[in-house]
């Protein structure tokens, strides 16, 4: 009888494959599948949409370990219907995304972005450089999970006053105060900076919209490193063009790659980065810390202990 298969849809270093085999000796670890092996796939590490129908319809799949934090691209309703566990990579990217946000803020507040543009045309200009002080600013993190908490720690070290928003407004350590997401527009009124770190769900779709932007200060900054579709792109563009807010930075977009004809490219008060905030040094080791802990538990008693996703909520 053939062993159940742990299907690695991403290439991992040999040291990690060896650890998987040590923890789960009764499983076969595979990176490629023959048609007659599909039925034996029980665990999938990673998820490729081109394999979706095969794995859902021709396997005994019981658990998917996503390599990403966001899981909105996965067939969550099918997982729920079939009783498939899902865990994600939440927490792996916390430091990387936090440093990206801080780098973005300093680029704006210290005039570095303008200096880069001036250097390209050999222009020496001190009087035209925009500058401000990050320390003392009131900053709202919308999404107080792993990334939000790490960002709060990093920002507080720079003297920033950090507030948070989550689903219910429950208190979270490291935030001066937290509020319910239903109060987003009202709370945004008093903030110098709003940072979006939300997952992609029906509840978060276009949650950053004209209502929120119109409530923000005219000198406020908006940054999104969560999911692209949490921002109503056209309404953000309008807010920037009409100077309802001073500056925005987007690392994620409703459509990726961002089309060359998008009006966003033309906005001088918008910084565009190509979905790079989550790029993480030694990603495999950090990811395997989560997966191997889950694998030990799964092999022992069929349960997950780290980052299990609530399928109905989407995170």
Automatic annotation (TrEMBL):
PANTHER family named in the record: 2-HACID_DH_C DOMAIN-CONTAINING PROTEIN, D-ISOMER SPECIFIC 2-HYDROXYACID DEHYDROGENASE NAD-BINDING DOMAIN-CONTAINING PROTEIN
Stretches of the chain forming a coiled coil according to its record: none
Family recorded in the similarity comment: Belongs to the D-isomer specific 2-hydroxyacid dehydrogenase family.
Segments forming domain D-isomer specific 2-hydroxyacid dehydrogenase catalytic: 22-306
UniProt xrefs under InterPro entries: D-isomer_2_OHA_DH_cat_dom (IPR006139), D-isomer_DH_NAD-bd (IPR006140), NAD(P)-bd_dom_sf (IPR036291)
Pfam families: 2-Hacid_dh, 2-Hacid_dh_C
Alphabetical keyword list: NAD, Oxidoreductase
Taxonomy of the source species: Bacteria, Bacillati, Bacillota, Bacilli, Lactobacillales
Record protein name field: Hydroxyacid dehydrogenase
Residues covered by the D-isomer specific 2-hydroxyacid dehydrogenase NAD-binding domain: 103-277
């Amino acid at each position: 009888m053939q062993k159940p298969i742990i299907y690695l849809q991403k290439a991992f270093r040999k040291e990690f494959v060896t650890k998987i085999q040590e923890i789960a000796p009764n499983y076969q670890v595979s990176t490629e599948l023959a048609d007659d092996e599909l039925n034996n796939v029980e665990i999938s590490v990673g998820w490729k949409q081109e394999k979706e129908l095969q794995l859902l319809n021709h396997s005994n799949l019981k658990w998917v370990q996503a390599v990403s934090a966001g899981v909105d691209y996965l067939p969550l309703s099918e997982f729920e219907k079939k009783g498939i566990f899902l865990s994600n990579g939440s927490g792996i990217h916390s430091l990387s995304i936090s440093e990206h946000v801080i780098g973005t803020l300093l680029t704006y507040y210290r005039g570095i972005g303008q200096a880069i543009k001036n250097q390209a045309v050999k222009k020496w200009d001190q009087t035209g450089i925009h500058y401000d002080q990050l320390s003392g600013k009131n900053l709202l993190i919308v999404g107080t999970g792993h990334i939000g908490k790490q960002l709060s720690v990093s920002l507080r070290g720079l003297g920033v006053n950090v507030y948070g928003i989550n689903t219910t407004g429950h208190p979270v350590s490291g935030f001066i105060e937290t509020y319910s997401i239903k109060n987003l527009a009202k709370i945004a009124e008093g903030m110098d900076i709003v940072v979006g770190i939300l997952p992609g769900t029906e509840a978060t779709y276009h949650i950053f919209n004209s209502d929120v932007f119109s409530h923000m200060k005219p000198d406020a900054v908006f940054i999104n490193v969560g999911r692209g579709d949490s921002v109503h792109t056209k309404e953000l563009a309008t807010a920037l063009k009409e100077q309802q807010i001073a500056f925005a930075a987007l690392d994620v977009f409703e459509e990726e790659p961002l089309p060359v004809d998008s009006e966003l490219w033309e906005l001088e008060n918008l910084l565009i980065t190509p979905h790079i905030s989550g790029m993480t040094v030694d990603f495999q080791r950090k990811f395997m810390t989560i997966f191997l802990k889950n694998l030990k538990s799964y092999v022992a008693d069929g349960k997950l202990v780290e980052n299990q996703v609530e399928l109905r909520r989407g995170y």
